[in-house]
Amino acid sequence: MRTIKPFILILITVFLLSCEKEDLKNINGLWLVEKVEVGENTMTPVARWTRFNKDGTQTSGNGWLQHSVGSWFLKDKLLTVKNTNGINDEYEPFSIEIEKDKMIWTREEEGQEVSVFLKRIDEIPASEGNKLIGLWKLTKVLEDGNDITVVANPDGKSMLHLRWGNVYVQHNMPKGRQYGIYKIHDHKPEIQLVNYGESSRFSFWNFSIDDQKLKLISRDQKSEMEFERIHQFIQ
């Protein structure tokens, strides 16, 4: 039986070490979380991303919002992620596997297996909520199935402006300009509106965007509004 020569052992060792270094290199860059499996349950985060930098720092967020920053460390394919503005991770590091542009993290949390599936991307993804930002012209209003556009928008100039700072402005309304605050639901296409003033009230709308068209349907299904994106205020 032949014995493995010392120089072959050295070559094998160098190869294994280079593979480990390649894993470290491969994790650098921007990744999108495609899905998370917890036990038998599967969740799809909204435009959740994380970026690993060569200097050992990392950032993460949802859509255009970056909400976490910290560091990362990878050893023997065990990944530790720490957020300087977050809550301490009480669980063991993730075991990771990387194949081309795909990566899987696995570990156990509270007796359940957790798997995170990621893919490499080139730019930070926009969430559906991000796509709402901008100026929209009101084109149609339905109430209990009845078209009341001529009442709600008599001169055809009403607009909804959704600003990046979560403030909305309704222009050219029958009762004048109206202001308020909006919030996008974290896990579904729903926008919450609350107007400023003494008679403030909350309203919840499911939204859908198709190219340059926006549709809002109230949670109780009684009201519906349609808009089209514009790039200039109507006087």
* Secondary structure: helix percent: 10-25%
Terminal residue distance: 91 Å
Number of DSSP strand runs: 18
Overall geometry: elongated
Q: H/E element string? A: HEEEEEEEEEEEHEEEEEEE
Secondary structure topology:
Blueprint: H1 6-26, E1 29-38, E2 41-43, E3 48-52, E4 57-62, E5 65-75, E6 78-83, E7 94-99, E8 102-109, E9 112-121, E10 134-143, E11 146-147, H2 149-152, E12 159-162, E13 167-171, E14 178-184, E15 190-195, E16 202-210, E17 213-218, E18 223-230
Antiparallel strand pairs: 1-2, 1-3, 1-9, 3-4, 4-5, 5-6, 6-7, 7-8, 8-9, 10-11, 10-12, 10-18, 12-13, 13-14, 14-15, 15-16, 16-17, 17-18
Could you describe the 3D structure shown?
By secondary structure, the protein is mostly beta strands. Helices cover 11% and strands 52% of the residues. The chain is built from two helices and 18 strands. The chain has helices spanning 6-26, 149-152, and strands spanning 29-38, 41-43, 48-52, 57-62, 65-75, 78-83, 94-99, 102-109, 112-121, 134-143, 146-147, 159-162, 167-171, 178-184, 190-195, 202-210, 213-218, 223-230. The chain has an eight-stranded antiparallel barrel with strand order 1-3-4-5-6-7-8-9. The radius of gyration is 25 Å and the shape is elongated. The N and C termini lie far apart (91 Å). Mean pLDDT is 89; it is low at 9-22.
